Amino acid sequence: MPTPRTMSALVAQGTGEPSDVLRLETRPVPAPGPGQALIRVKATPIHASDLHVLRGRYGFSPDFPAVGGNMECVGRIEALGPDTGGLRIGERVVVAAVPAVPGPALAGTWQEYLVADRHRILPVPDSLSDSSACQLAVNPLTALLLVTRELDVRQGEWLLQTAAGSTVGRLVIQLARHLGVRTINVVRRRGAVEEIEALGGDEVICTEDEDLVRRVADIAGPSGVRKAVDCVAGPVGAQVSKALAPGGEVVVYGALSTHRQTDPAALTIPLQARSVIYETKTVRGFWLNRWFGTTEPADALHALSEVRDLVTGEALTIPQGRPFPLDRFPEAITLTESPAHGGKPLFVFEDGQAGTDG
Predict the structure, then answer these.
(1) Which of 7, 177, 318, 350 is the most buried (most CB within 10 A)?
(2) Domains defined along the chain, listed by start
């Protein structure tokens, strides 16, 4: 009998602080089934949402023990199961590993090999670095979906967004410039204003010393702003809703104001009923996991291919990541949650070092 192939994987034993519950383990290399491919992972990012999953305060919880990292990676196809026409061994691909149905089949990305369904796999060119490729399927895709699908913001329209200095916020600014959309960008520190303006933000509001509602009215004039995206929630999210023109719509995709909260009752947006009712405003949520689970696979891959083309065409720029081997996971996790940590920490494998685009 041949010796089974093994691989390294970063496995969570249960919920808790990530550095406490994660263990580096040796596991068998999985085999692809029908409609699946075996991917040799080259690079995979660490997202804040990955850590929320491990702490038990995200939108789903896997069956433990579970491999960490449930979002995205880049690698090469090493083996194919039946019914995988269109894919080929050796092809460089991005895997959008966001699960449609959480549970024991959840294939985390923090491992050397993973099995992925063919409808979650998108070929990418070698000209795109591992660092950029492994970050295509979450933040840039979220920015694209918010602006073009969820709100359908048109050329010349205003788009109001919070946390403009976040990764998604910066990508929204870049995408808006590409599409001819005007942005009003909310930040909480005066020191961030100049940076957002340099990035291409049309207007910047600093909540440290400015009134958000009044400034939006001054900027947009009588016609007002009808479309907004918010990832802060709490009182800031409520102010965004209040600032919108009658019939306006805000899509909430995060809750940074409650980043360290563990009590679900604290995750609120204190809306003003009069504004919502009499001005018929809409506040609704967006969650990428649910979008993947409810969108036709062909449509999801089409959206992801749009992101790939925007990045390879340099309309969108993804900041360079910072590579770590799996065995340095405590350091990488600490860096993920450190203020102004620079490049996003990435787990890399062998020759999958995160290089520059070229």
Answers:
(1) 318
(2) 6-136+317-348 (3.90.180.10), 139-286 (3.40.50.720)
